[in-house]
């Protein structure tokens, strides 16, 4: 009897220890920006506060892991839908309220105890569910009767320690274009979109490969387009490079570890990412360049590599085989995660022998938040996709 009592006490203590450990976690670097952001852009951060508060209340009352799972999945999906609807109804193009609402929600899951003893594994699973749903990953079914199907990805705002109110046109594109049907010369296409985090660890854990592998394996969409904010005009990134070389941090303030002199190879599930140093953009460039808008559309060939000289050189190769024997420093998309999403998607396409045209579009850069300009950018992206239809 004494032995049984001891075992039971030990189990209770262990359960309490797990629960206490889980909720002794500190905030992530992204979550720690919530309070500074509220001081600068309170209306933006709190736009979906009623949704977040309601979720927080229900989270604390969740009595089982299954109940919490159902609730988080439903809520995260609704958050994505709410953000899309707000832009359409208000005609106010802004990706930032969704970003901050997601962080306030993850803070609740991470720091507030529900009505059951939750393990670290369960906590991680629920945080993943929140990410998946609020980034559009849970509604990628094509439901319209169209000739073509397009998958497009955008990014979260980034470099927020420089400008806490930073927006990202690619994120607005993801919200505005999701579920839309476009048509050109009698050819129609349904667009599905996903929002991607600006975090090296997510990329190293295979977030891009997990998202895209089913499409490449089955060849069941007609075009995959990755989008991010870039330079002065629109750039079609012809030769994405394999390595990280920028010193800019990600949204968790993690550095790439690479420099222009010593670029580093990213990981894929704890191993070095396989593949050639450079890969080739395969969207219909000439068709896309015909899209009308306020900005030029540039077929960007410029890369930086380490060749036989052993030193970084910047040049504009005409063909992929011109880069044979070169070590990637910057792909045409740079040395950050925007270049990397392009490299990873194309590398995977080639590995799976897919025929889906794939490539990266860099949008013009904005100053923190410029809704009128960002709306024009999205309109031109839409025009690019429409022009591409005739060449697919």
Secondary structure layout plus pairing:
Layout: H1 2-22, H2 34-40, H3 42-45, H4 49-61, H5 65-90, H6 96-111, H7 120-134, E1 148-155, H8 169-177, E2 181-184, E3 187-196, H9 200-204, H10 207-218, E4 223-229, E5 234-237, E6 267-268, E7 271-272, H11 285-288, E8 297-300, E9 303-306, E10 312-315, E11 327-330, H12 337-351, E12 358-363, H13 371-389
Parallel strand pairs: 1-3, 1-4, 4-12, 5-8
Antiparallel strand pairs: 2-3, 5-12, 6-7, 9-10, 9-11
Helix pairs in contact: 4-5, 4-6, 5-6, 5-7, 6-7, 8-13, 10-12
Plain-language structure description:
By secondary structure, the chain is α/β, with parallel strands linked by helices. It folds into 2 domains: 2-134, no CATH class; 148-389, Aminopeptidase (3-Layer(aba) Sandwich). Helix content is 42%, strand content 15%. It is built from 13 helices and 12 strands. The strands form 3 sheets. It has a 7-stranded mixed sheet with strand order 2-3-1-4-12-5-8. A 3-stranded antiparallel sheet has the order 10-9-11, with no helix packed on it. A two-stranded antiparallel sheet has the order 6-7. α4 (49-61) packs antiparallel against α5. The N and C termini lie far apart (74 Å). Mean pLDDT is 93; it is low at 1-22.
């Amino acid at each position: 009897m004494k032995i049984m009592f001891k075992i039971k006490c030990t189990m209770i203590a262990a359960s309490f220890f797990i629960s206490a450990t889980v909720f002794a976690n500190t905030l992530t670097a992204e979550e720690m920006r919530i309070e500074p952001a509220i001081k600068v852009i309170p209306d933006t951060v709190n736009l979906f506060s009623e949704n977040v508060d309601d979720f927080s209340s229900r989270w604390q009352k969740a009595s089982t892991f299954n109940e919490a799972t159902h609730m988080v999945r439903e809520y995260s999906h609704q958050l994505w839908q709410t953000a899309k609807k707000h832009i359409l109804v208000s005609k106010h193009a802004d990706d930032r309220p969704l970003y901050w609402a997601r962080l306030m929600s993850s803070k609740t899951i991470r720091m507030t105890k529900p009505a059951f003893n939750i393990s670290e594994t369960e906590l991680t699973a629920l945080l993943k569910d929140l990410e998946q749903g609020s980034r559009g990953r849970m509604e990628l079914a094509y439901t319209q009767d169209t000739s073509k199907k397009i998958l497009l990805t955008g990014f979260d705002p980034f470099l927020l320690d420089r400008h806490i109110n930073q927006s990202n046109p690619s994120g607005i594109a993801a919200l505005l274009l999701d579920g839309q049907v476009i048509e050109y010369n009698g050819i129609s296409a349904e667009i599905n979109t996903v929002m991607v985090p600006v975090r090296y660890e997510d990329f190293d854990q295979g977030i891009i490969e997990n998202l895209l592998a089913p499409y490449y394996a089955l060849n069941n969409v007609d075009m995959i387009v990755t989008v991010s904010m870039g330079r002065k005009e629109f750039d079609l990134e012809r030769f994405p490079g394999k390595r990280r070389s920028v010193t800019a941090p990600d949204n968790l303030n993690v550095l790439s570890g690479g420099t222009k002199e010593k670029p580093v190879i990213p990981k894929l599930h704890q191993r070095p990412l396989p593949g050639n140093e450079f890969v080739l953009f395969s969207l219909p460039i000439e068709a896309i360049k015909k899209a009308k808008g306020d900005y030029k559309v540039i077929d960007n060939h410029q890369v930086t590599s380490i060749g036989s000289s052993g030193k970084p050189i910047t040049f504009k190769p005409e063909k992929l085989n011109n880069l044979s024997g070169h070590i990637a420093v910057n792909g045409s998309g740079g040395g950050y995660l925007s270049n990397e999403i392009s490299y990873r998607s194309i590398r995977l396409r080639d590995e799976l022998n897919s025929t889906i045209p794939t490539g990266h579009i860099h949008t013009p850069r904005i100053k923190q938040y410029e809704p009128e300009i960002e709306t024009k950018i999205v309109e031109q992206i839409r025009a690019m996709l429409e022009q591409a239809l005739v060449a697919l």
